[in-house]
Amino acid sequence: MRQALSLQNIMSMLRERWATVPDTRKPNNHTKYAVADGVLAAFAVFFMQSSSFLAHQRLLQSKKGRSNARSLFQIEQIPSDPQIRNLVDPLSATYFQDDFWSVLDELKEQQRLWPFRNDLNTYAIALDGVSFFSSENLSCPKCLKREDRSGTEHFYHSAITPVFVKPGQAQVLPLPPEFITPHATRGHEKQDCERVAAKRWLAQHHEHFADYSVSYLGDDLYANQPLCQLIAETYHQFFIFVCKPESHTGLYEWIDFLEKTHSLENVTHRHWNGKRGEMWHYRFAQQVPLRNGEEALRVNWLELVIAHETTGEILYQNSFVTNHAITAANVIPLAQLGRTRWKIENENNNTLTPALAGGARETKGYHLEHNFGHGQQDLANVLATLNILAFLIHTIQEMIEPAYQRLRRALGARKTFFNDLRALTRYLVFDSWDDLFLFMEEGLEIAPQPP
After folding, report:
1. How far apart are CA 320 and CA 239, in angstroms?
2. DSSP label at 86?
3. Which contacts (CB < 8 Å, 24+ apart) does range 221-226 have?
4. Which of 385, 342, 396 is nearest to 171 (CA)?
5. How far is 223 from 219, CA to CA, in rounded Å?
6. Residue 270 pairs with which residues in a beta bridge?
7. Which residues of 355-370 are buried (b: 16+ CB within 10 A; e: fewer)?
8. What is the distance between the alpha carbons of residues 360 and 149, in angstroms, rounded to a whole number?
9. pTM of the model as a whole
């Protein structure tokens, strides 16, 4: 029986769900293209990491009378790029949040989420913001605005993109994004911010974690009392946030006092990194105030300093606040988990937006900044959501689908895998994803032998 999270089943699920996407067109304005076809077509471009995928499928359809757009993505009629924009632009990005939970809840039901459980017996969710569009000319009502030093106005889109992470785990699992947008208040336009977006995300999605513990990870921006208090006291979960001295002067006055009175606890161990010896030194304190004032939230603080064993050169230094109790027995996994927040940048945001994140454009292939044009309503945010969803589904295939795993191992680089997918589907039509993967396995002579 086919795996519930096989690509064929997932595509069927998406086709069924997206067939109910609201259609705002007037009845006498309908064309032969269903809104679902527009959404699936956009999704296919991101899933195949190919801006020319649909053009190739239109050519196959004209020559052969069939295409991979239909057999693999269940697109009944392939819209043009302008038609995709017109079909998708009126939709709301929030409609697609349930698609994330459909596959993630199935992953949880199959006991496939447990590899993300960490040494603190929690699941870690890293929070971070990412920008995926910027222009001096194009804008829409969902654009944020900023001015550079010359006074030139820039329009841009940003979102927080939470992901499941675990130290030592190669993959991250993207969760539904939350977009940072302007909103009107008392007749004035007010700029949204990452912190407020994080609170909205928690309010919308916290119930999905009601039956297990979560540690939220983030940079110094998140280490503020309202958010920490919300996580700890309202949602009864954990946080481990970077905490810098320059933004938490009151807390570090306490740390300085505890250091002078020799009240900080210390743990040191030697670590061999494969090339050199390093000394990892931990300091920590319990129940220190996060800020000045009588109503300050009490948090636990820890610092990790990594030094070259021979020269004493500082190789890494960072500090965190948390509501996890800190002891000599758990300070090492706590610091390790706190450091894992970088995976949201390296494995998620840099994968989705290599050009905007400062990496090479061809590094991974999920170009979140590619958006078929900008749109006039919610197009940019909908397409960003579909792009992240495509990344999630690929990640799940990498975790649980044997054929997908064998092909990735055999082909090595992600880029090679997608180059092969694009080349094969440009010239050949496959009846299903199973047939496509079988064709690739047989060509590479890696298909499993029958018992």
Report:
1. 10
2. H
3. 221/129, 221/194, 221/195, 222/127, 222/195, 222/198, 223/247, 223/248, 223/290, 223/321, 224/195, 224/290, 225/290, 225/291, 225/296, 225/297, 226/195, 226/199
4. 396
5. 7
6. 279
7. ebbeeeeeebbbbbbb
8. 26
9. 0.89
- CA dist., res. 381 & res. 375, Å (int): 10
Alpha-carbon distances of 435 from 413, 418, 420, 425, rounded to whole Å: 22, 16, 14, 12
Q: CA–CA separation, 299 vs 322, rounded Å?
A: 6
Query: CA 85 to CA 378: how far, in whole Å?
Result: 10
The DSSP code sequence of 237-290 is -EEEEE--GGG-HHHHHHHHHHHHTT-SEEEEEEEE-SSSEEEEEEEEEEEEES
Instruction: Give SS3 for 95.
Output: helix
Residues 45-82: pLDDT tens digits? 999 999 899 999 999 999 999 999 999 999 999 999 88
What architecture is the 95-352 domain classified under in CATH? Answer: Alpha-Beta Complex (3.90)
Alpha carbon distances (Å) from 312 to 217, 309, 339:
29, 6, 21
DSSP 296: P
3-state secondary structure 395-423: HHHHHHCHHHHHHHHHHCCHHHHHHHHHH
Residues 6+ apart with CB under 8 A from 159: 129, 130, 132, 177, 178, 179, 180, 197, 381, 384
For residue 325, give both structure tokens.
């109790």
Cβ contact 389:152 at 8 Å? no
Write out the residue limits of the CATH 3.90.350 domain(s) in the chain.
95-352
Instruction: Kindly report, residue by residue over 253-301, the tens digit of the pLDDT.
Output: 999 999 999 999 999 999 998 889 999 999 999 999 999 988 999 999 9
Sheet (strand 238-242) strand order: 173-174, 163-165, 123-126, 214-218, 238-242, 314-322, 298-308, 277-289, 265-272
Pair 132, 157: CB distance under 8 Å: yes
| Burial (0-12, 13-18, 19+ Cβ within 10 Å), 13 | middle
The type of residue at 242 is: V
